[in-house]
Amino acid sequence: MTQVPLHEAQTLPVWRRPITLLFLMAVAMPLSFATWSALLNNFVIEAAQFDGSDIGWLHTVREIPGFFAIGVILVLWVMREQTLALVSLALLGVATAVTAWFPTIGGLMMVTLISSIGFHYYETVNQSLQLQWLPKDRAPQILGWLLAAGSAATLVAYVLIVMTWQAFDLSYNFVYLASGGVTVLIVLYCALAFPQFESPNPQVKKFILRRRYWLYYALQFMAGARRQIFVVFAGFMMVERFGFDVHHVTGLYLINLVANMAIAPVFGKVVARFGERNALVFEYVGLVTVFLLYGGIYWFGWGVLLASVLYVLDHMFFALALALKTYFQKIADPGDIAPTAAVAFTINHIAAVFLPALLGYLWLISPGAVFGLAAAMAAGSLALALMIPRNPEPGNETVFSAYSPAPAE
To answer: What 3-state DSSP class applies to 167?
Structure first.
């Protein structure tokens, strides 16, 4: 395959440039993953009779590859990041396509593990490629547009589900095959249409854990912990407590997507204008509020309208997580981006491996307590975000750097 230095890529036609590849991959991933997520809660309840404990164990299995994302560093010895991103996307697409063929807890755990390997390895190298290929001054805005592009592509899929699920009596098998198949087709196009882009900064291909990145690691850990509660239990609540059908859940996802298409580019500008510290503080204050209100649904019997509004707000706040990426981009050595992305993904999934299963048992006793714990985690993230300096850079990674500079290693 042709190799093109990154600084020469702007001479290529627009349809062969790095940013176009990033946009196509941003479209391909959610077509499989978001469709899988939208149908999952209904599918596991109807086909496999899951309860709260079962769904917790399934998501624990799903997060195991994320915990081992550090293995990306080993894979990069034999495969370029760009190639690994496409291979991982193909694995996600194929596994999504065959999900409905395994309507048992064992079968679903197996196919979920395979799709999760593709998803997590793709996300690890995609984050690395974004931070290497995007200029620092434009990264927040472009990351916002990438989020919006993924939302727009998924919007098309969800509109089709909402409009045709009942009208044409669609099956889970048909929808999973279609969404996974389109992802695979996009991957094939990307493999054939784009050259290999050479970054000007060779990436370190070994495990690194730098003391001066400690705040970034801590924020990643807390983000992974609290996000699992939303991913696993917020949607499950809508089906289990309020009886949402597939087209109801997908309709809620549609609202999220439209909101993301409008809000994500704005959030990118907000991060560029007000900085990562202020953006993350705003996100975490919002999440504390949302999770406390989620708990109130169980503690005080609040209704489905509030739950639906909170679900949308919750999803919107998570879009501000792009500030965490650009914070690291500003403090990182250029050669550290790929290995640190792998390390950070593993840290992000430490809690994700055990929390879903453990909280699945707590869910059986007190669903409100699960969301109360999420609010406490968001409050912890807020405390950490306040440690980000207003102008992060190497040597100024935290508000404490001026008093106790962290060593480079």
So the answer is: coil
Burial of 391 (0-12, 13-18, 19+ CB in 10 A): exposed
Which amino acid belongs to residue 19?
Answer: I
Which two structure tokens, joined as six digits, stand for 232? 């696993």
> Of 133, 113, 31, 2, nearest to 65 (Cα)?
113
Q: Residue 251 CA to chain centroid, in angstroms?
A: 20
d(CA 289, CA 291): 6
pLDDT, one tens digit per residue, over 210-224 is 888 899 999 989 888
CATH 1.20.1250.20 fits 3-385, yes or no: yes
Helix (H, G, I), strand (E, B) or coil at 29: helix
- Among all chains, which residue has been given the structure tokens 């679903």? 108
CA distances from 325 to 154, 220, 274, 332 (A): 23, 10, 15, 11
Residue 245: phi and psi, rounded to 5, are -90, 175
Q: How far apart are CA 263 and CA 269, in angstroms?
A: 10
Measured CA distances, 171 to 38, 65, 154 (Å): 14, 29, 19
Degrees to nearest 5, angle at CA 185 with 180 and 190: 125
Contact predicate 57/353, CB 8 Å: no
100-145 pLDDT, tens digit each: 888 888 888 889 899 988 988 898 888 888 888 888 778 888 888 8
- What is the distance of C-alpha 229 from the center of its chain? 14
The DSSP 8-state label assigned to residue 79 in this structure reads S
Question: What pairs with residue 396 in β-bridges?
Answer: 393
Q: Where are the domains of the chain?
A: 3-385
Q: Which amino acid is at 389?
A: P
Residue 245: how many CB atoms within 10 A of its CB?
13
